[in-house]
Amino acid sequence: MSAAPAEAEGRLADLATTRKITAERVPRGTEPDPPETNTAYQAIVNAFNQHPGRAFRARELHGLLGMPTDEATVNVTRSRLGRLVRQGFLTHPGRGRYQKRT
User: Fold this and answer.
1) pTM score > 0.70 for this model?
2) CB-CB neighbours of 36 under 10 Å
């Protein structure tokens, strides 16, 4: 039982040392890239928010967003649309059509 806290303290000391070494090796003034804020899902949801009453097909959505319309890319978007339907963000009013849930 007493060995566990000692092990944890040793690991924390190792992590602190690693942090110091890493900070010394990284040049000053370099910041990591910010996380991507506009994902494909967000772009899709934004398109539906801009056109709340309109139902889209996946290929039409690609045209609206300026995305490539090759079959593989459109199939990925169909998958994303299906996930958004399952999560309750969109509805599936007809075959191949997706609409914002009201």
Assistant:
1) no
2) 8
